[in-house]
Design brief:
The chain has one domain: Aminopeptidase. It is an alpha+beta fold. The relative contact order is 0.15. About 35% of the residues lie in helices and about 20% in strands. The N and C termini lie far apart (about 125 Å).
Length: about 350
């Protein structure tokens, strides 16, 4: 073989020629992928837009009162509250009424919360269940409003004593909700004192020992039901809100996608809300997942000036000026202060 004999060149790979059928299949796949990507973008644009604040309460008797206003929708034509007409709203500032019930009639836990989505700050005011409200019925306790005439009535009675009609509400059946505790393997909680209350029906007997422990669903329900403290309603309010924070932390720290199928039926069974799913996603993405529960979630008790009785029933009487001051410091969604004179807080004794 000669010195300068040319070496054979490696063959270039032959370019594959797609058959017409394969070309059509590839175009269909690319089209479907494009549609999925576009749909995802549209979904994110719709579902993660800032929720609107529902400034005005629905008119009494309006069958649409219970229907939520979806993000981006035009708000319904309702009777305007003259107070809210005179004020503007703080940007990205929302109010939520959080309600806990054990029998789906009386509300054992009533909390008015505000969410400052820009500052990632949450304030929560606990309203005593025995708070006297100005209604023309024998039992003037605010905890009977939900059973008397539904969540809209409770929202109106909260508005009466705060001048704030909540943007959203969330009613939680605690008997069902504690199933979440079991789903996440229990919640570490420091039970502040021994709790014992015997009952003819063993299902309702309460028997808990003081101290740090892991509460399963059954024990958690016992704790939130217990009423025998020297602090009465005020001690229960503090205990319940501390426990709700413990549950929230556990869920956020332990939640996995694998638990979704188990979690959804529990939430559907235990929670009633007028917050659209799109707004839930927005709050989770922009507030809940970002917030520091220890530093930026603040709890307060509605200021009371006294307790007493009226026609044989015990009541908590709110301090009108102190209530107005607390509202303005925490949950007031308006750009002007709420005045004590706007609060319909009464005190009847006999």
């Amino acid at each position: 073989m000669g010195r300068y004999e040319q070496q054979p060149q490696p063959r270039k790979p032959r370019k594959k020629t797609l058959t017409p059928a394969k070309r059509r299949r590839r175009r269909r796949i690319l089209s479907v992928a494009g549609i999925v990507a576009l749909s995802l973008c549209i979904w994110l644009a719709i579902y993660l837009t800032t929720p609107p604040a529902q400034v005005d309460p629905p008119p009494v008797g309006d069958p649409a009162a219970a229907n939520p206003v979806a993000s981006g929708d035009t708000q319904p034509d309702v009777d305007k509250d003259p107070v809210s007409q005179e004020r503007g709203r703080k940007k990205n500032f929302y109010t939520v009424l959080l309600v806990g019930t054990l029998d789906d009639y009386n509300t054992d836990t009533i909390m008015l919360a505000s969410v400052d989505a820009d500052a990632d700050i949450v304030n929560v005011i606990s309203i005593p269940r025995d708070t006297m409200v100005d209604i023309d019925v024998k039992n003037k306790k605010i905890n009977g409003a939900y059973g008397r005439d539904g969540i809209e009535e409770l929202c109106r009675e909260v508005q009466d004593i705060t001048a704030i009609y909540p943007d959203f509400y969330c009613v939680v059946n605690m008997a069902s909700f504690v199933k979440i505790v079991d789903l996440f393997g229990g919640v570490e909680f420091n039970v502040p004192y021994n709790m014992y209350h015997p009952d003819a029906d063993s299902r309702y007997t309460i028997n808990l020992q003081k101290g740090m422990q892991t509460l399963n669903g059954k024990k958690a329900l016992q704790m939130v039901r217990f009423r025998g403290t020297s602090q009465n309603d005020f001690g229960r309010m503090e205990l319940q809100r501390n426990f709700l924070v413990a549950i929230a932390k556990k869920v956020l720290n332990s939640f996995t996608l694998a638990q979704v199928t188990d979690l959804i039926p529990i939430v559907n069974e235990s929670v009633k809300t007028n917050m659209p799913v799109k707004d839930m996603l927005w709050f989770y993405t922009n507030v809940v997942s970002e917030i520091d529960f220890d530093a930026n979630v603040h709890f307060h008790a509605m200021p009371a000036e006294a307790t007493g009785t009226y026609k044989g029933l015990s009541y908590v009487y709110l301090d009108k000026q102190a209530v107005a001051d607390l509202l303005n410091e925490t949950v007031n969604p308006y750009d002007q202060d709420i005045q004590a004179s706007e609060l319909n807080i009464i005190r009847l004794e006999s």
